[in-house]
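WARN retry 2 of 3 for item q-0093 after timeout on previous attempt; input resubmitted unchanged.
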Amino acid sequence: MSRGLGKMQSHILVEIENLGGEVLQNQLLWHLAELDSKIRRDRRIYDDVYEGEIEISYKNNFLRAANQLAENEKIKRKDRSINDLSELFTYYPFKTYKLEISALRKKLLPIAKNYLEHGYRESPYSFHSYPRFGTGDHELFILQNTKDTNPELYKTAKSKWLIVESEILNILALKKISQFNEWMRLVIKGRQLFLEERRLKYGPAFHTLLESFTSHKNSMPEPERKLLDKIHRFTYRIFKEDDIHRAVMKTALYRLANFKKGGAATLRKELKGFMLKECPDLIRSLPGHKDPPPSMGGLWLYDHATFSKLLDKLIDRHIFSAFRFISVR
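OK item q-0093 returned
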């Protein structure tokens, strides 16, 4: 006979239903640990921000029970990349077992979002210090990622572009057309993207160039309309909507933090300064924070402030990894 469900397994199934039928696994862990008083609270840092963590034995018991439920097909698990910044910042505070990090993310990630929307414009350094990406950069990022993760698709994209380019050149050779310049720009950008002609430094995004045809499409000869539709189908396959959204989200995150290859992420000093301005008491209460000497004047004092190392744990490389959701079968 089977032993039936253990206490933790039953607890998990009940609370998944109570939380809507599907929940982030780590969010459920925090929820259950709070219900069962298994979150250790140590030194108070500020207001309701405490050092501490979920008790290790409780966390291990939860993870073991969740694995058993999945193996016994009682729950479904789905790993999902989150490509929307608001949704990301809602779930990211649960992607840790440390109490102070979770609490600070809940308090400060909304400040970071506000900074992205308009706060960074206040910084005199923003023009020089921030990566400035547009849709064209997103396209390059997506193609490089495709080249690394799906080389066959990348190879197919190159060969299909050569066919498309040949068709464009054939149309241009037949007669003079009103959109001659637009078609030529598309050829140049296609060569830059799909044939990796590094000497071509053409700024406009491929999507932007395609949109320039929109107002003329109805008056185009049928061969041109058919070719334009073919190019649209081609781009939909290469530049999937989720990939565009992810590239946009990564652009935003790179405005917030430095992600050094092989090293820990660190918040940009301008964001730290913005947080100091928006919630000074909280930032000054963090361990290791030091304001500059009173003798130092000027508007941008954060240049001379020593910020707590705890702030750099607000965002780490785990923000790019998938989030595990669980639901009852």
